[in-house]
Amino acid sequence: MSPILHALEHDKSKLSQMERKLAERILASPGEIVHMGITELAEECGISTATITRFCKALHFKGYPDFKLKLAAELAHSDGSPETGSSSYQDIVAGNPLQFIVEAMQANHLASIRDTTSLLDLGRLQQVIDLLCRARRVDLYGMATSSIVAQDFYQKLIRIGVNCTAFADSHMQITSASSLSSGDVAFAVSYSGETPETVDALTCAAASGAATVSLTSYGSSTLATLADIPLFSSSLEQGMRRGDMASRIAQLHIIDILFTGMVSTRFGDFIPRLEQSYRNVQHYRHKRGGQI
C-alpha cells in the first residue's frame, strides 16, 4: 500500500462522515481517482468540491490536483491496490539465514527511501532550506530513536558553522525553546508525530516566536499540524521494531537532502567551513596517532 493510501486507511476512523465516504472511494479504486476531475468525484460521492479541497489540504496537499499528482506517482510504483504495492516491508523472522536478513534490510531501506521520495514537496523543502540558511539559531528536538536523527542533523550543521543544538532531554527542550525568538528555527523529529515531550517543545518554541518545522511519518498528527512547515517520511513500516529501522533511514534521507540543499544554496559560505572543519579534525586525529 502506498504511503498516501496507508495514511487514509489508518486515519479513516478520525474523519467526518463525508470525508470518510471520500476516503473509502479513493481506497476502493485509487487508479481511477487520478483520472477524475474534482467535480466528477464530488458528484459521485455526493459531496461538494469544497469538501474535497479541504480534505486534500488536511492531508497537507496544496489541493486536489496536487493530491492526484502525488497519488499517481506512488501508484506508478505499485499495482494501485490498497492491499498491495511496491513496498513489501519484511519483518524480523526467527531463524532467518543471514543472507535473507541482509536482503530484507536492503529491500526495506530502499523501499523506505523510495516511498519517502514520492511524498516530498519540493516547495516545502525549499522553504525549510531557506529558513535554516538564514536562521540566527536552530534548535533540534527528538526523543529516543528520533534523537538520533536530530543528533545526525546537528553534527552536519555544526560543521558548516550553523548555531545549533540538539536536545534529547525534555526539560532542556523546553528551557531552550523558551529562549527562542523571531529569526530562530525549531526543528522537531517524531516518527509518530505524537511524542508528548516533542509536541510540548515545539509548542513552546512557536509561542516564543520561532519558525517551526516538523519531520514525522506521513499522515495526520499533532506535531505536523502544529508546525509552520511539516515534512513527511514514509509511514508504511509495521511489525516488530521496524519503525526503528526503515523509518530512521527515511528520515535521515530527508536530513541529507536538507543539508545538501543548504550547502548548495550558500556554497561560497558553507564549503570553506566544511573543508576547514575536516582539515582540523584530520590534524588533531594525526596528532593523537589517528585516534578519534
From TrEMBL:
<protein>
    <submittedName>
        <fullName>MurR/RpiR family transcriptional regulator</fullName>
    </submittedName>
</protein>
<dbReference type="InterPro" id="IPR009057">
    <property type="entry name" value="Homeodomain-like_sf"/>
</dbReference>
<dbReference type="InterPro" id="IPR047640">
    <property type="entry name" value="RpiR-like"/>
</dbReference>
<dbReference type="InterPro" id="IPR000281">
    <property type="entry name" value="HTH_RpiR"/>
</dbReference>
<feature type="domain" description="HTH rpiR-type">
    <location>
        <begin position="2"/>
        <end position="78"/>
    </location>
</feature>
<dbReference type="InterPro" id="IPR001347">
    <property type="entry name" value="SIS_dom"/>
</dbReference>
<dbReference type="InterPro" id="IPR046348">
    <property type="entry name" value="SIS_dom_sf"/>
</dbReference>
<keyword id="KW-0804">Transcription</keyword>
<keyword id="KW-0238">DNA-binding</keyword>
<dbReference type="InterPro" id="IPR036388">
    <property type="entry name" value="WH-like_DNA-bd_sf"/>
</dbReference>
<dbReference type="Pfam" id="PF01380">
    <property type="entry name" value="SIS"/>
</dbReference>
<keyword id="KW-0805">Transcription regulation</keyword>
<dbReference type="InterPro" id="IPR035472">
    <property type="entry name" value="RpiR-like_SIS"/>
</dbReference>
<feature type="domain" description="SIS">
    <location>
        <begin position="128"/>
        <end position="268"/>
    </location>
</feature>
<dbReference type="Pfam" id="PF01418">
    <property type="entry name" value="HTH_6"/>
</dbReference>
